[in-house]
Amino acid sequence: MGGKYRITGTKYPRMRRPRRRGRLVAAVLASVCTLGLLGWGTLELIDVFSGGGSTAGAAKRCPAEGKADAARAATAHGGKVLPPPGRITVNVYNATQRTGLAKDTADQLKKRGFKIGDVGNASADYDKKVKGAGVVLGPTSAVGTSLPVLGAQVAGAEQRPDGRKGATLDLILGDGFKGLVKAADANKAVTALTAPSTTVDPVKKGC
C-alpha cells in the first residue's frame, strides 16, 4: 500500500461505495406512482367510451341523450279514426214538454252533415223522465266511434249502448237541453278525440 495505510486487527477497510438505499426507495415509489396513474387513465378512457364516465363526461353527453329521449318520447301511438257525420244516422226524440224541440234539433244536425231518421216524441221509457241535457243511445260497436261524435254536439249528454242491432243512433232530448253546442266547439271536441297521444320518459338522474 506504499506505506500510506496500516492494517491492524482482523478488519479491512471497504474499497467500494456504500449503497444508497434512499435513491432506491425513491425510484421504487416513483415507478409505483407512474403505474398507478397509467392504470387510472386507462380506466377513465374505457369508462368514457363505454358510456359511463365522471360528472364532467356526463354533463357533455346529457344534451345528446336529452335529444334522443325527446325523440323517443315524441313517438305517437296513433289516434282514433271516427266516422264523419255523413255516415251517422240519428233518430231525434223529444222527452220534454217543449213543442217542436225534436224537429228544430234534427234540422240543425242535418245542417252539420248528420243523416236524420225518425223525429218525434220519446217513448214511454224516456218521456218526461230525462232530467239532464239528453241521452245518446246506440249499439255496442258505436262506443268510442259514432256515439262520441254525436255526443259532442250536446253538452252533458249521457252516452251509452243499449244492445241494438243496427247502426242508427238515438238522441233523446231532456229537460236540461239548451241547444246544440256551437259547431266550432263540437268540431274541436271531435278533433281532440282523434289526436294521437304521446309518452314521456322520466328524466334521467345525473343530467
Automatic annotation (TrEMBL):
Q: Name one Pfam family in it.
A: LytR_C
Q: Which residues form the LytR/CpsA/Psr regulator C-terminal domain?
A: 87-177
> Record's superkingdom?
Bacteria
Q: Which InterPro entries match?
A: LytR/CpsA/Psr_C (IPR027381)
Protein name, please? LytR/CpsA/Psr regulator C-terminal domain-containing protein
Q: Which organism is it from?
A: Streptomyces malaysiense
Organism taxonomic ancestry: Bacteria, Bacillati, Actinomycetota, Actinomycetes, Kitasatosporales
